[in-house]
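== Polypeptide entry ==
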Amino acid sequence: MQKNQTVKFEFIALMASLMSIVALAIDAILPAMSAIGISINSLDTNNNQLLITMIFLGLGFGQLLFGPLSDSFGRKPIVYIGFSVFAVASVICVLAPTLEWMVFGRILQGVGLAAPRTIAIAVIRDMYIGDYMAKIMSFVTTFFILVPVIAPVMGKFILNHYNWKGIFYVQLVMALLVSIWFWKRQPETLKPEYKIKFTKHVFLDGLKELIKHKETMGFTVISGLISGAFIVYLSASQIIFENQYGLIDEFPYIFAGLAAGVGLSTFLNGSFVMRFGMWRLSYFAIILFSVNALIYVLLFWNSANPSLPIILLFMAIQFFTIGFIFGNLRAIAMEPIGHIAGIGAAITGFISTLMAVPIANFIGGFVTDTALPLFIGFTIFGTLSFFIFIRMRVLHTRGLVDA
């Protein structure tokens, strides 16, 4: 029994590590945004937000490439290819002389990291289904959330004792260690009989199959809406806390504290999902997500930012709901498409990212003087998600979804 528990824990930790390199690449540079901007002669803080949002664009397109490849050639080889692309992209970022080169490097980093991120989800779907899959996803995400907790603090430490380039070097070392761990300890999970011959039609065939599953498509759209609003926070948090509140040294710890709240709720979701079900938990979380944001908008419409404790309270509630949303939405979307888990994870991830990046870039451009646009985005896209969820719930209850 103890041996099985150890194996299960290692599996969760390994899948989380595959996904966490993405969080490390995003969150570790947040305290260094100003320093990077000065180094590459980009002093516009709104333009510098592209260093965060555009990595998601790379993630979206990378999934389209690596998802189908993993269904044809297996999960493991694709992870190694992805980490290799990430290594090349990291070097480009370190040597980038301008914002344009840095953005290119960040997009390419996203393309490379799409492989371990997508394959981690596909491997979990290869091995688990239903609420138990949601439980595993929640525990994986709990470990994954530890990275946003420590990454900004680590980035600040490296920035103070070395320079911003050291952050990219650390990312490279971590990616190498995780890839070795994955190589040594994780067996191939794609069974030979489920391999799909790679042809130019594999994406189109996968998309046709995916469209048949209304449940998958509906929850993929919800993921895109919620992700877009959340990416605004990731890209604009430095502006809010450093520029608007003047908390330059405190920013990494504030970010870490809010991320810890997401980790706590994700852990609780893993404990509650077997009792209440992923549908019910994500439904009430989306309601709280939308209502909390609406209350903030009504209270602080056309006014300055509230005091720090007030905005932290609203943000803490907002991000606490995230832990009950993302893992469950992903599990619900993936459940009907286990027979095409690789291409399914790729296309659903691409669609949600394709929605999220324009949302984040648009709203992020308004986060200059106050945090109000952030909460307006939370309100609008949370409400839209709620209505889509209601529609999916009706179809699910009637037994029409994926019939």
Remarks:
- The two ends are 39 Å apart (CA to CA).
